[in-house]
TrEMBL record:
<protein>
    <recommendedName>
        <fullName>F-box domain-containing protein</fullName>
    </recommendedName>
</protein>
<feature type="compositionally biased region" description="Polar residues">
    <location>
        <begin position="10"/>
        <end position="19"/>
    </location>
</feature>
<feature type="compositionally biased region" description="Acidic residues">
    <location>
        <begin position="39"/>
        <end position="49"/>
    </location>
</feature>
<feature type="compositionally biased region" description="Basic residues">
    <location>
        <begin position="53"/>
        <end position="62"/>
    </location>
</feature>
<dbReference type="InterPro" id="IPR001810">
    <property type="entry name" value="F-box_dom"/>
</dbReference>
<feature type="domain" description="F-box">
    <location>
        <begin position="88"/>
        <end position="137"/>
    </location>
</feature>
<dbReference type="InterPro" id="IPR036047">
    <property type="entry name" value="F-box-like_dom_sf"/>
</dbReference>
<feature type="region of interest" description="Disordered">
    <location>
        <begin position="1"/>
        <end position="77"/>
    </location>
</feature>
Length: 678
């Protein structure tokens, strides 16, 4: 920085005809009082003369070169720049009124920022003679409320435009307490303000100001209070209380209390209270105007930022088009979250310059390349999911009653189908005819291999209790499997129902790059149920069938009527059921319960009349068609279709785990003969 005399610095602040701004230096920005003026109406400028700096002398080199000297290497100074000292030297020739006239076209916020650039500008803008500049700048802002009586121009501009908290300095802070002339964030309200009813306020304020007409400026502050016993605030939300407090600024309270206490007579104090009440009323009216202007300014600023961001995005797209990445960027815009527009390099509210583009080009292109790979992967994954859905739709279309279908793991082991699904390019569509032809060629072999593997694993479970068991034992009515899974513990079932039980199905992923899960059948949660097999043997023997050869279908053909004598209640009557309930319910298959099987004599028709229709057809029957069945139940309207005929139209779906054989009660005379479970 060139040396300047004290006289030169003083001339800058005098009302001369020259404009001599000093070189920009950092100014103290921590305290508002340093630049907002004093109570006299003149804006103070308390700055010390900067210390003199010694000129830096260059030392001659020990070695003398053959080239020209450093002085000769410097270019010849143009005529118009000779005698000019410093970057702003040309401005010294301007008349002082010219910059001041220019400053009038700024808004008050710009004047504040300009006053912090150099000490000379600070001294000029904070002088009393510059008040017209501030007033003209304020009046040039649309719909801005007038200057309040208790603030000067820089103070009012500071409250309106400086968006930091006056307590902690955090930015941005858009919470303004207009009556208290303070910006404050939530965390600083307790430190800056004092609440109504607090001991500090009671000590400072005379009772006449607290309980008389409203005089003290106050604002409602919302604050969250946590109970002292709450340790985890995120979990104990029920103990959180939210309060609204009338808060005051301590220095305002001290000022009002001092003015009131300085008055000696009661008449003077009453007159002062009346005047201050009117002042507070005017302050509240001014507060409403400021709130309206501030909300409109925030909304306008939001629209301005949106426009700047849109212009920046358009400029980025134009530059991406030159390097071949615009199409990918526009594809990223089509996503639900519009990841391109929300990218940190695109969403900035700054105009794009050539220097700015060079600084973001590499990172943005790298991100677009990653987005492209991600998009292509998602397209491939979606195409594979679609093909898999079409494949299993065609597989289910080939299913017939009683025909077992393999799960996804068995289908994907076939190399031909796997190559068709995974290796076909994502942009190529697979037709249903092509899938159908491939299935007709490979599905029979897939089903045979899968069924053989499943049956072998089930036979191994049976052989743990019956060493001589074979595949034929799977069809026996006395072969009852039990689930040991947590979700369906002690659930009993026959073959092929075990093939569709949820605890036997595992969810696996085909590959790491494609998020596709598939079901795989496993027998690790199955055992042979000892109590279930024992009850099934008793029922088969009660139906005069051979336990070694009787199948599940044989038991369905007989469909015996069973009564549990141990569950009879005098108030509710006797409990009857079909064989699935007798085997499936744990309390009936326990060794302490005794059952009666198909031994009810002449009372049988009366018992059957109480049986639900679902039991008769072994399935859920639509209530709208109850009149289509002939039944001994008087509540059913007769129709020329017998139960046996109706069963021809129904079948038992092994994929359904529900036991359609519901127990029912019959109120009648108890029967004497009983066959206890051995």
């Amino acid at each position: 920085m060139p040396r300047r005399s004290k006289r030169s610095h003083q001339n800058t602040l005098d009302s001369s005809n020259s404009w001599k701004p000093d070189k920009a230096e950092d100014c103290d920005d921590g305290d508002t009082a340093n630049f907002i003026g004093d109570d006299s109406g003149e804006y103070s400028l308390e700055e010390e003369e900067p210390p003199r700096k010694r000129a830096k002398r260059s030392h001659k080199s020990k070695y003398v070169g053959t080239g020209s000297s450093a002085k000769n290497r410097k270019g010849k100074i143009p005529e118009q720049f000779r005698g000019v000292r410093g970057r702003t030297g040309l401005l010294e020739k301007l008349a002082k009124d010219v910059p001041l006239d220019i400053f009038c076209y700024l808004d008050p916020g710009d004047l504040l920022r300009l006053a912090r650039t150099t000490r000379d500008l600070r001294g000029i803008l904070m002088s009393k003679t510059s008040e017209i500049v501030w007033r003209t700048a304020r009046e040039g802002v649309d719909e801005l409320p007038p200057l309040p009586d208790d603030l000067n121009e820089p103070q009012f501009a500071h409250l309106l435009y400086e968006s930091y908290c006056h307590g902690c300095g955090h930015k941005p802070c858009d919470t303004i307490y207009w009556l208290l002339r303070t910006r404050c964030c939530k965390s600083c309200t307790r430190a800056i303000f004092i609440d109504h009813g607090s001991s500090d306020l009671m000590v400072k304020v005379p009772p006449e100001l607290m309980y008389g007409p409203e005089v003290l400026p106050s604002e409602v502050v919302k604050r969250t209070i946590y109970s002292s016993i709450v340790e985890n605030r995120a979990l104990m939300t029920s103990l959180v209380r939210r309060h609204r407090y009338d808060s005051y600024r301590p220095d305002m309270v001290d000022k009002y209390a001092a003015e009131f206490n300085a008055l000696k007579t009661e008449d003077e104090r009453n007159a002062w209270i009346s005047r201050q009440a009117e002042v507070l009323k005017a302050m509240k009216e001014h507060k409403y105007l400021c709130q309206q202007w501030f909300q409109a300014r925030i909304a306008g600023r939001g629209e301005e930022l949106v426009n700047v961001r849109d212009q920046r995005k358009i400029a980025i797209l134009e530059r991406l088009e030159k390097i071949g990445w615009r199409e990918e960027a526009e594809l990223s815009e089509s996503y639900a979250r519009d990841v391109f527009s929300n990218h940190k390099l695109v969403r900035q509210p700054k105009k794009l310059t050539n220097h700015g583009w060079k600084s973001i080009e590499t990172e943005l292109v790298q991100w677009l390349a990653e987005q492209k790979n991600k998009r292509l992967g998602e397209q491939r994954s979606a195409a594979i999911h679609k093909r898999i859905a079409m494949l299993f739709k065609e597989i289910k279309a080939t299913r017939s009653l009683g025909n077992q279908l393999p799960y996804e793991d068995a289908v994907f082991t076939n190399e031909a189908l796997r190559e068709l699904i995974w290796e076909t390019p994502a942009e190529d569509e697979l037709s249903s005819e092509l899938l159908r032809s491939k299935l007709s060629e490979h599905l029979p072999d897939i089903v045979e291999r899968w069924s053989s593997a499943v049956q072998e694993s089930l036979v191994e479970i049976i052989q743990k209790s019956r060493p001589n068991a074979t595949i034929v034992d799977l069809q026996l009515a006395t072969t009852v499997f039990e689930c040991t899974g947590v979700a369906h513990e002690y659930f009993l079932m026959h073959y092929p129902q075990v093939l569709y039980h949820k605890c036997c199905l595992k969810y696996c992923f085909q590959s790491a790059d494609i998020r596709f899960g598939y079901l795989k059948w496993s027998s690790e949660n199955l055992i042979l149920s000892s109590t279930g097999c024992h009850m099934a043997t008793a029922i088969v023997q009660g139906c005069s069938l051979d336990p070694a050869t009787a199948t599940v279908q044989d038991l369905w053909d007989v469909n015996p009527l069973i009564e549990c004598k141990s569950c009879e209640r005098q108030a509710d009557g006797r409990l009857f059921m079909r064989w699935p309930s007798a085997i499936g319910d744990s309390q009936h298959r326990s060794r302490g319960h005794s059952v009666v099987i198909n031994n009810f004599g002449d009372e049988t028709p009366h018992i059957l009349a109480c049986e639900p229709l679902d039991n008769l057809v072994c399935g859920s029957f639509p209530p709208r068609h109850l009149d289509a069945v002939i039944s001994a139940n008087a509540n059913v309207v007769p129709f020329p279709l017998s139960i046996d005929d109706l069963r021809l139209h129904c079948y038992r779906d092994p994929t359904n785990m529900r036991d359609w054989s519901s127990p029912f009660r019959y109120r009648g005379l108890p029967l004497e003969p009983s066959t206890p479970v051995a």
